[in-house]
Write a structure and sequence with these properties.
binds adenosine-5'-diphosphate; binds magnesium ion; binds aspartic acid
């Protein structure tokens, strides 16, 4: 008899019919004798709706109150789900983050889990109940409700699986697994059968939202096998596990994109020691994480400084930078929210040269201008104009031959370009 944590995303519990269907699927496992903990997201669109409501109240909503508001979405689905299980003749109990004692730090709207008390969940499982836990939420030691950042229900599920020492964590979603790129953008995307924690971490950090990056971090640290699969089919999905020799060793294993960033440029910054620190210290003190930074020297001992920040933090970052511009003797500040970051990822890149130039050539052939570039051992990212995102993703996917092996994704996405 195994213990399984099963997480269902927003599209899987989008309405009462879908909640009943998911309950029936979970009960299939219960009938076979498994102990099941279910983690649920809010109904599709609900968290966005709540964010929009908050914005009608305050220009920059108070983050403590935002968390009280956002956590309500998951409260609705867990209660409805427990009712559906009971209606089917089985016992269930819904539990919120603070009831379970999912203790987090106090970074409202992006809190980190510090500990999970498994006592209440285990006692309910021992009494034969399906335990239904609200995803995405926790509580601080000072009893304030927190949320874990968008997409955070994945993290609740994997962290719970680790704490409970579950045999497996299943992430049920609206695609059949992890693909070589977003199957909703590129119909030639291929499902990956097995992927290592490290490669998945990289894909998730660069925008593949199929798994929240922190959930992959927990899975890696506590060696939780994660199975990403579809709520709507029985097909085997993708296993996220430790690296083994049988994994496909591709030069480039995936293409990702993120529309969650914004660019800020400071021009004519004096090229003297201490200037970078004066710019970035107040930004980091405001809890804003800077991603890429480019600095180039130009004539007259002046330099231009361009960097990216998460799009939700753009206005705040612009405010901070505008406030220090004259103090450091810089020229003006400009910025754009209409950018996207497209990346290619693959551990196989480590020992190969020429991958970056291939990427630049493929983008150039489509007339796509590169605004910023950053590289690491196993990824290359380019910032481009947001309107070219989908074209860039498809071009890179096929250009690196990712469409050639295995079965392509089914669906309505535009087929990738034939090379
Ligand atoms: P859920 O609500 O179930 O958590 P999400 O919308 O957060 O679902 O994540 C699933 C979505 O992730 C898919 O619908 C797909 O568009 C997107 N996605 C992006 N990159 C990938 C990828 N490499 N493989 C699979 N899905 C991806
Ligand atoms: N409901 C939250 C969100 O939309 C958490 C999640 O779905 O994982 O971001
Ligand atoms: Mg998600």
């Amino acid at each position: 008899m195994s213990l399984i944590v099963q997480k269902f995303g927003g599209t899987s519990v989008a309405n009462p019919e879908k909640i009943k269907a998911v309950a029936a699927r979970v009960l299939g496992y219960v009938k076979k004798g498994h102990r099941v903990v279910v983690v649920l997201s809010a109904m599709a669109g609900e968290t966005n709706r709540l964010v929009a409501l908050a914005q009608q109240m305050q220009d920059q909503p108070d983050t403590r109150e935002m968390d009280v508001l956002l956590s309500s979405g998951e409260q609705v689905t867990v209660a409805l789900f427990a009712m559906a299980v009971k209606e089917a003749g089985y016992d269930a109990v819904s539990l919120l983050g603070d009831q379970v004692k999912i203790i987090t730090d106090a970074m409202h709207t992006k809190a980190r889990i510090k500990s999970i008390d498994t006592g209440l969940v285990t006692r309910n499982l021992d009494q034969g109940r399906v335990v239904v836990v609200a995803g995405f939420q926790g509580v601080t030691e000072a009893a304030d409700i927190t949320t874990l950042g968008r997409g955070g229900s994945d993290t609740t599920a994997v962290a719970l699986a680790a704490a409970l020492k579950a045999d497996e964590c299943e992430i049920y979603t609206d695609v059949e697994g992890v693909y070589t790129t977003d199957p909703n953008v590129c119909a030639n995307a291929r499902k990956i059968d097995r992927i290592s924690y490290d490669e998945m971490l990289e894909l998730a950090s660069l925008g593949a939202k199929v798994l929240d990056i922190r959930s992959v971090g927990f899975a890696k640290r506590y060696k939780v096998p994660v199975h990403v699969r579809s709520t709507f089919t029985k097909t085997q999905g993708t296993m996220v596990v430790e690296e083994d020799k049988n994994m496909e060793s591709m030069l480039v294993s995936g293409v990702t994109y993120s529309k969650n960033e914004a660019r800020i440029t400071l021009s004519k910054v004096p090229d003297v020691p201490g200037v970078a620190s004066k710019i970035f210290t107040p930004i980091s003190e405001a809890g804003i994480v800077v991603d890429m930074i480019i600095q180039n020297t130009r004539a007259g001992e002046m330099t231009d400084m361009t960097f990216t920040v998460p799009r939700p933090d753009y206005k705040r970052a612009m405010g901070i930078v505008s406030g220090i511009v004259s103090g450091i003797g810089a020229g003006d500040v400009t910025g754009s929210e209409q950018i996207a970051k497209v990346s290619i990822v693959g551990v196989g890149m480590r020992n190969h040269s020429g991958i970056a130039t291939t990427m630049f050539r493929l983008l150039a052939q489509e007339g796509i201008n590169i605004q910023m570039i950053s590289t690491s051992e196993i990824k290359i990212s380019c910032v481009i104009d947001e309107k070219y995102t989908e074209l860039a993703v498809r071009t890179l996917h096929d250009g690196f031959g990712l469409h050639q092996v295995g079965k392509p994704a089914k669906g309505k996405a535009t087929a990738c370009k034939k090379k």
